[in-house]
Amino acid sequence: MKNSLFVILFLCILFISIASDIRFLNRQKRETSVVVSLSISALTLLLFGLWMAGVKVGMPTRPFIDPIGLTLYEWIKEMLA
Amino acid sequence: MQKTVISERQFAFLVISLLSTASLINLPHVLIELSGADAAFSVIFMLLYGLLMAAYMVMLSRRYPRKNLFEIHEIIFGRIFGTFINVLLLLRIGFVVLRDIRLFNFFTKVVLLPRTPTEILLLLFFIVLFYYGSTTLEVSARVNELFYPLLLLSQLILPLLLINQYSFYSADPYFVQPPQNVGMAGIIGCTWFGDIFVMGAFLQMLSSKVQMKSAFRFGVIVSSFIMALSLVLMVMVFGANMTAHQVYPNYSLAMQLLLTDFLDRLEFPFLAVYFPVFFINTAIMFIAMLIGIGTITRSRDYTRFNRPFGLLVLLASLLGFRGAIDLNIFANYGLPFFVILIEPLAILTVLTGFLIKQHREKRMASEYITDSEPPGSVQATAANPEGAGPERESHAQHEKQTDDPPPSTKPPMKGWSHRTWTRFTNVLIGLALAFVAIGFVLGMDYQDAATFCTIGFHLCLLIAVYSSAREARRAKLEPAPSTPSDSGGA
Fold first, then answer.
1. Which chain A residues are Cβ-neighbours of B307 within 8 angstroms?
2. Separation CA A72–CA B190 (nearest Å)
3. Bigger pLDDT: B374 vs B191
4. B122, B136, B178, B476: least buried by Cβ within 10 Å?
């Protein structure tokens, strides 16, 4: 169960950010920073959607926790014992 | 990008904040778990590693004075491979940001707001982060300059406030742990001190490279001293075993403060000082990431993607760790593995690329001069690659203008020069290392000698803090030498 207050606030901030980028894009000529900003927003929206749908997304921290971190932790514990 | 300039003191405080704030929460118990009561000696490895990283960044910044580390990588390796190195650096900073944000989140949840949902705590944190992300580093540097001295003071007066709580006998015998355990703790500590890489994004913000070197050195030495002080204090108050099993031993130390029957819960003033500094620490890293993305995508205004990127980091930090155990394993075992694997490799690659580029420029300079100048002047210019070619000439001139203060006509100042203070600090660090080595050789058989080495080690660290402060002060006052040979100290 996701926290509804968080979901609403998160989406509000995200949509304000996207709207401000689109407004900026309409007013001025195409600028790299706005394109980058919109791409990041799209990625965030996708990730948020997957999280809401309950799909497990492999984050880059996972490999450093499950296979690597745990193995190292156990190895060091054995070494100390 | 906006031109931002910060002072040497602000730079030094940012380095200290970066190195000591997050590590004070999570690192001590791991170091003590690995190396028992001898954990304080592992700090020497962290100190040396921090100084090495600082020397590396100062060297690059001397050669490319108005560039940050991301831009320097692109200059050395070109667009494609430079971007690859930059992505690795961004990933490294990103991991540190995720680690620190979640550390702060768990810490807040445990000590202050246990019933507030994690998502809300994170969102509140990010809302303030968006504000700092929309400004330049100058704002964070000023806030840090305001708060960090308070945190430093609170750490320094802690031994006095806890005077009725500790026993010197909890810390002895000294140098009885296996040296490899202390070495292992040192390696893990080094990866935390490797966070100094974040300052690479702000190299262009301090024009004098002598001051930058001094600021880096002062920052690293003070951070090491604070870490050593905290470790010794924890061992003396709780003993090695208890500290190794605590999650936040530094917070527990603050909880031990009981001044008379009426003044308890004194940890809250400590938290009030600690939170803003920790926040600035995260803001610095966040701004460094924004600058990195701005450099890679060649965006002029990095504040534009502050909010969307912040939201992405917020989601990543939420999904990246399932709980406190995950975070602990990531921070102290997984991330160090990544850092040990990537950092030396990346540094060696950059250094090799740097040397090849320098060699090529030197050769091109000599060719250019043999084509355009009379033969007599070739050698003089070829010896200094910066002075070759019209572009390099202006670059070197520009560097000379911005790098160091102009030579003044003031009479020479009394007391030791900057270089002498630097050498003195280096001697103290060398002595501290020697005390650790001798302590481990003699510790099992001669405890008197081990005690002497322990006292010597801590005294060396303490005096090194003073001498590095003097070094930084002299760097500010003295006109810099015209030759780049002063890099030897770092």
1. 13, 16-17
2. 16
3. B191
4. B178
Can you spell out the DSSP letters for B9-76?
HHHHHHHHHHHHHHHHHHHHHHHHHHHGGGGGGGHHHHHHHHHHHHHHHHHHHHHSTT--HHHHHHHH
pLDDT in tens, B440-482: 999 888 889 999 999 999 999 999 999 999 988 888 776 655 4
Output B91 or B164, whichever has higher pLDDT: B91
**Terminal-residue alpha carbon distance, chain B:** 29
- From the list B417, B472, B28, the residue with the least C-alpha distance to B238 is B28
Which of B302, B308, B335 is nearest residue A64 as measured by Cβ atoms? B335
Sign of the dihedral through C-alpha B263, B266, B268, B273: positive
Joined tokens for residue B344: 């030396």
DSSP state letter for B112: T
B254 pLDDT higher than 90: no
Residue B299: what are its φ and ψ, rounded to 5°?
Answer: -90, 135
Distance from CA of B368 to the nearest CA of A (A): 37
Cα–Cα separations (whole angstroms), residue B151 to A16, B202, B232, B410: 37, 23, 18, 37
Measured distance CA(B162)–CA(B349) in Å, rounded: 48
Burial status of residue B352 (CB atoms within 10 A of its CB: 0-12, 13-18, 19 or more)? exposed
Q: How confident is the model at residue B25 (pLDDT cuts 50, 70, 90)?
A: confident
A17–B320 C-beta distance less than 8 A: no
**Which pLDDT score, from 0 to 100, does residue B199 have?**
92
Interface predicted TM-score (ipTM) of this complex, two decimals: 0.94
Burial of B318 (0-12, 13-18, 19+ CB in 10 A): buried
